[in-house]
Amino acid sequence: MQETFAAGRVDATVDEPCAPEPGAPEAESAFSPALAAALAASAALAACGGGGGGGGGGVGAAGVGFSSADVGAGTTVQAGSLTPIAGTATGQTYVYTQAKTDDEAVRFLLQAQFSASEADIAAVRSKGYLPWLGEQVDMPPAQTGWDWIASKPYNTVNTDDMVWNQLITAPDGFRKRVALAFTEIFVVSANDIGSNWPHHMMAGYWDTLVAGVTGNFRKLLEDVTLNPAMGYYLNTKGNQKENAQGRQPDENFAREVMQLMTIGLYQLEPDGTVKTAADGTPLYSYNMDDVTNLARVFTGYDLDIRNDEKSGTAGAFTPPGATYTVENNAWTKRPMALTASRHSTLEAKFLGATVPANTEGKAALKIALDTLFNHPNVGPFLCKQLIQRLVTSNPSKAYVKRVSDIFADNGAGVRGDMKSVLAAVVLDNEARSPAGLTDGSFGRLREPMLRFAQWARTTGATSTSGNWKIGDLSRPNDRLGQSPLRSPSVFNFFRPGYVPPSTAIAAANLVAPEFQLVNETSVGGYLNYMQSVLPRNTKDVNGGYGAELALVLDPAALVRRLNLLFAANQLSAATQNLIVNALGTPALTATSSDSAKLNRVYSAVLLVMAAPEYLVQK
């Protein structure tokens, strides 16, 4: 199968049908026989690549923008701690400041968070984009993942339960959406974490990323560096200085913090363009000596498990039914602690900075993190990836530059203010302009875990047990092929520069990161899994579907609702007609069984979530 990202659609050259994997649930198990043929044909065709693009929603006229006079008077822009961005040179370029239609509001909401509700749409339309964002970033923090796990009996919930609960139920959807994007840059995977308290530790890491959404990048960088989960994942836990027997500091974190989390492999212009030598070859941003020297800074750190927690006396924990004790879980919320005798005191030179010999460990760490934070690559390197995660895989150089400028100065003289950076990502004219709806190079493939979270939020899903037993959805053949906090490697589920080989994307010199997850198995697996999860049954988490059931006797109205809330009214007329016609058989009346009515709702949701214009977010 060959996918393209052109003309607003995901096309395919299909050699074989996207057949269900062996053992996968079949349509007849949850849907009426009369609809099975429509589901098998239209859903499989859509997910494999059939159908056309083009939005179905009327995009309103451009807004009026921010004026310096208005900002200075404080009469037009009231956005709490985000107010300074309006007065920046970047903020002065914004044209689309207000949603003129529901379509525009939903399009914005689906970039800024997981889902859109009627209340969300009304709030965005009445307040404007920036004031709405200001409310989101100034909202009091919701319950943390760590506290949620701690509120449950020992070992009844795990990392998957915690993160799904956070993604689906948390009121601060903007924070959680961006934190999920952070998990794909500052990667720690639950697949490779082991301790007496792995779930508390992963919850603590998640909470660190959530806090970083509205904090400063410098603090986020330090919090990630010293987090116990990162210590386990990239070997800073227990990393020791060199010795006479030939031991050398582990270089894993030193390499990845530069390559993946801060500056990247190549020197960058402020617009993200790679700098080149006279012969056209890219200029590297660091070398092996930088890695070796920087690694010395990250020695001497280990879990902050204190004596009373290890001794079996005060603070120790006895698992239910056990005759032994382990340390309590308090260390999972604390940064790693420095043991001076294990820290390298050799001189360390990297990226033009020097840590003098015999520098105390915490002072050495400060020099290192300050150097990374102030490196000119950080703005464009980080901002381009955030644009890719939230808005479009192929942002223009000017778009990257505008957001990078906000990283350098948020309008109040602050570098690295993440809430302002994130506002700049979704407020930019390139994100908001209706031109993107018909631009074949604009947009991104929705990640499977985002589709799932959107379904759960939009349909009002609840957990019978309160424990959100959704589980690890990583398997591609019968689940989503992706699950939050379970990246297969430090390089994330996909690379930001991934190009699907032998496709129109490659021919156009574009990238499509999320397509690294796409193959015949994952396409069929996604459809089969969603088909099994949509029906209400004895599983723990089920959709509510109250609003959908209210429209069930009017297939066209039902599809209109789903088109708006799931796809910002971007399903083409042809796709909408295909779905409406499929839903017409069997006919339903007010006296039809509840099962028949629910089957129509399930079918409608599945067909919308299989449509190419939904799968590609614009």
Structure characterization notes:
The protein is mostly helical. The protein contains 27 helices and ten strands. The strands form five sheets. The chain has a two-stranded antiparallel sheet with strand order 1-2. The protein has a two-stranded antiparallel sheet with strand order 3-4. It is globular and about 80 Å long. The model is unreliable at 1-64 and 67-75 (pLDDT under 50).
What's the SSE blueprint?
Elements: E1 2-4, E2 11-13, H1 33-48, H2 68-73, H3 102-112, H4 118-127, H5 129-138, H6 145-150, H7 159-169, H8 173-182, H9 198-213, H10 217-226, H11 228-233, H12 252-259, H13 288-297, E3 301-302, H14 307-310, E4 337-338, E5 348-350, E6 353-355, H15 361-374, H16 378-390, H17 397-408, H18 418-427, H19 429-432, E7 444-445, H20 448-458, E8 462-463, H21 504-507, H22 520-533, E9 541-542, H23 546-549, H24 555-567, H25 573-583, H26 594-610, H27 612-615, E10 616-617
Antiparallel strand pairs: 1-2, 3-4, 5-6, 7-10, 8-9
Helix pairs in contact: 1-22, 1-25, 1-26, 3-4, 3-24, 4-5, 7-8, 7-20, 8-9, 9-10, 12-13, 16-17, 16-18, 17-18, 24-25, 24-26, 25-26
